[in-house]
Amino acid sequence: xxxxxxxxxxxxxxxxxxxxxxxxxxxxxxxxxxxxxxxxxxxxxxxxxxxxxxxxxxxxxxxxxxxxxxxxx
Length: 73
Known about the structure:
single chain, mainly alpha, 62% helix
């Protein structure tokens, strides 16, 4: 059985990968949150408050960016 390693036990390449994944995740979440704030009620499918909660993680943010927006007129 594999044992879970602590962050301090991970090598330099592993730490760089964790930081890169974290940075990309924060960028996606920030992009979705900014988009929700800038769009009007009629440009968002469903409740903006619900989308804000859903997009607090990267998968929810990707779902909002893909399915939660209407085309701007």
